[in-house]
Amino acid sequence: MSELVIKDLHVSIAGKEILQGVNLKLKTGEIHAIMGPNGTGKSTLSESIMGNPAYTVTQGSVTLDGKNLLDMTVDERARAGLFLAMQYPAEIPGITNAEFIHGAINARRPEDDALPMRDFLKELYENMQFLDMKLEMSQRYLNHGFSGGEKKRNEILQMMMIKPKFAVLDEIDSGLDIDALKVVSRGINKMRGKDFGALMITHYQRLLDYVVPDVVHVMMGGRVVAEGGPELAKRLETEGYSKLRDELGLKIELTDEDV
What we know:
Elements: E1 3-13, E2 16-27, E3 31-35, H1 42-50, E4 56-64, E5 67-68, H2 74-80, E6 82-85, E7 92-96, H3 97-107, H4 117-130, E8 141-142, H5 148-162, E9 166-170, H6 178-191, E10 197-201, H7 205-210, E11 215-220, E12 223-228, H8 230-239, H9 242-248
Parallel strand pairs: 3-10, 3-11, 6-9, 9-10
Antiparallel strand pairs: 1-2, 1-4, 4-5, 7-8, 11-12
Helix pairs in contact: 5-6
């Protein structure tokens, strides 16, 4: 069993403190969800875990199996077993989807133990069919010209092929119609097991109808203020964030959308 532990994490961007002491623990075999109002730091948390240099960690720690991730480069974190499905995946012309995924897999393997191309393609095509992706997409440039839904499916395809210890899924449901949401959720559920853990960042209950989390964390004001089971997410969907904020005695302004 592997463990991702975040302790008292403070993060700033452009001199403004966004995260103000986040504490969170995730083990393989578990799927956690993070919900919260706009601007509370959910995406900042995901980017900080993965090592985006635009975000400055001013206090606290992030460890994976006891190893300090904050001392690692982005590629070292990926090799250690982290994966980030981005909210806005980048388009990268010049490298095909298949080349990128094959290279990412081999980067985590010893140099003398590269995954044979035949084995790679067999698994790749099986997973693409599982995700209702056209096989021709494997030979297109990475995300180049992909629709929003295709990009999100492609992120899940990468996760299924790379098989990380922990995946951070930053609003993987954003912009998806119901059919695409079901497919993406199917991919996440297929990964569930003792060797995989996920941290899903979402605004909406609808993703959690298809991928039922073990734990739901609520962020407000740059820190985790409440935790519970799937019923907590359903409560937020019904009541919004203002009632929970008031119960906790927090002085946090919410947008009309969040109330």
